[in-house]
Amino acid sequence: MITNHPAQAMPRGVTNAYLFQIFNASSWSFILGTPMLLFLKSLDASAAVLGAAVAMTPLFAALQIPAAGFVEKAGYKTFVVRGWTSRSIFILGIAIVAFLPAGVSANLRIVLTLLMMACFAAARGISMCGLMPWMTQIIPETLRGAFIARDTMCMYLALTFTMLLSSWYVGVFSSVRAFGFLFCLSYLSAMASVVFLKRIPDIPAARTRGGAARPPWKDMILFPPFFSYVLFSVVFNFFVSALGVAWVPF
Predict the structure, then answer these.
(1) How far is CA 32 from CA 10, 37, 40, 82, 120, in A?
(2) Same domain, 153 and 78
(3) Nearest to 194 by CA among 30, 28, 12
(4) Residue 113 has pLDDT above 60, yes or no
(5) Which of 92, 154, 190, 232 is the most buried (most CB within 10 A)?
(6) How many Å separate Cα 94 from the centre of its chain?
(7) How many CA atoms lie within 13 A of 52 on its CB side?
(8) pLDDT exceeds cutoff 70 at 107
């Protein structure tokens, strides 16, 4: 006799994770995407500067490794919320740079923008290491695939909307200061994402694992499925990393 088990439902509060992803993707797409590159190009930034701007995100993503040792001590939710709030401040700084008077030299604006982007990427890289472990503790194993699929769909829907919006806006308003309004929108989206991030359920402190044991890095890296994934990621990103910026100088 076959027993039909009722379908397992998503935990309460997970909708906030989807809303967080929508506003989060809307926010970083302005700062890490085409609008930022066009803003730098409007300041007559060189190809090297554009390349540096694109490289900051993967470069500072490596900060997840040393930061991982502090996540469980602080708590997943506390760690991620503080990181996301901190990085949002630097988005506002970029918007302020875009609104600086015309008398401010373009080189100074470029330097200030790159400095803000570096701080943004660093805060983002550090705080990201706590997000997926947090979601893993909340979402049951049998529902994680469905959660990732919906989460990814929310992200790409938001990216599509912001791409269309920014394309239309930059086509209509082409001044340097016009980018400031896009960055302000990015800041507002970032703060909205923090609001929904705070509404995601926390996990009991007892479920976090403490310990000072050194992670078995060699065994982790050489674990066949993980090694294959790392190899694929390295090769894939090696060939596509420049596609987002190669067209801008032209």
Answers:
(1) 31, 8, 12, 20, 10
(2) yes
(3) 28
(4) yes
(5) 190
(6) 16
(7) 15
(8) yes
Confidence of residue 151 (pLDDT cuts 50, 70, 90): very high
How many Cα atoms are found within 13 Å in the side-chain-facing hemisphere of 75?
Answer: 11
Contact predicate 21/151, CB 8 Å: yes
Judge whether 1 lies within some domain.
no
Query: Is the predicted pLDDT of residue 186 greater than 90, yes or no?
Result: yes
Do 140 and 46 lie in a common domain?
yes
Share of the chain above pLDDT 90, in %: 38
Residue range of the domain that includes 221: 216-250
Claim to verify: residue 167 and residue 246 sit in the same structural domain: no
Cα separation, 95 vs 17, whole angstroms: 26
List the Cα angle 115/120/123 in 5-degree steps.
125
Q: What is the CATH number of the domain that holds 57?
A: 1.20.1250.20
Burial class (CB in 10 A: 0-12, 13-18, 19+), 163: middle
pLDDT in tens, 27-45: 999 998 888 988 998 898 8
Residue 117 is predicted with a pLDDT of 92
Q: Do residues 145 and 75 both lie within one domain?
A: yes
Please list, in sequence order, all residues whose beta carbon lies within 8 angstroms of the beta carbon of residue 177, skipping any fewer than 6 positions away.
98, 99
Give the largest CA-CA distance in the chain.
80
Question: In the chain, how many domains are there?
Answer: 2
Q: Which residue has the higher pLDDT, 221 or 248?
A: 221
35 within domain boundaries: yes
Give the C-alpha separation, 238 to 232, whole Å: 10
Residue 174: what pLDDT? Answer: 76
Same domain, 46 and 157: yes
